[in-house]
Structure formats: C-alpha cells, structure tokens
Amino acid sequence: MTPQLDFVGIVVTDMSASVAFYRRLGLDFSAGSEQEPHAEAALPNGFRLALDTEATVKSFHIGWQHPTGAGRVGLAFRCADPAEVDSVYTDLIEAGYHGEMKPWDAFWGQRYAVVQDPDGNGVDLYAALPTAD
To answer: How many structural domains is the chain composed of?
Structure first.
C-alpha cells in the first residue's frame, strides 16, 4: 500500500481558543472539544484536521519543546469568491484575530489574505479573481 495523507495535526497552546478559531472558518468540531486534549474535524473530502494540546504531545514525545520563530505550517481555505475573502478576513479581525496580510489581488490571479490562528500559524484565505473576457 502507498501511504495516504490522512490528516494535518497542529499542536496548540489553548485548545478552546483554537477550536473557536477553526469553527469560525467552518470546521465542525464536536461539542466539548474545547476541553479535550485532542480534537478532530472531518472535512468534506475525508481529510481531517487534528488539534493536540502541548501537554498531549509532551505525554508521548519526551523532550518536545514549543517551537520558536515563525509558524512552520500553513493552511489555506478556498472561498467562493473575492468578496468572501474580504468578509471572512473582516469577521476574523473583528473577532480579535491577528491579520498578517490584508486582502489583496495577487498577481497569480487570486484574491488573497492571511490571518494567524491563536498559535501564530498562517491561515490563508483565497478565491479566484474574475477573468477579463
């Protein structure tokens, strides 16, 4: 069997804050996930996003230390259109999350923005720009 990528895992400092952030982006975590040491959200394509607290990771990875410097994982959420990029970005900023890059029309043909999750990981929002016919 060829290994299949099944989920992306993120180590989080505050499970409640992280679950709230990703719920705002439409991920469905089960009720009570905020208090759990491990939480997963199933995505429509069968892929999963898993969140683990630092304490959980330390319980099986002796010597694990919180990374320093910029985040090393990036997630991207496709939006329906450029207006949705702007509205989702605004919603997250108004909810108190840090905007890394305000929405802009990227030269590669997408409306693009970046916010940070509660642990400083970049989360991209994007949608295709309309093409001139």
So the answer is: 2
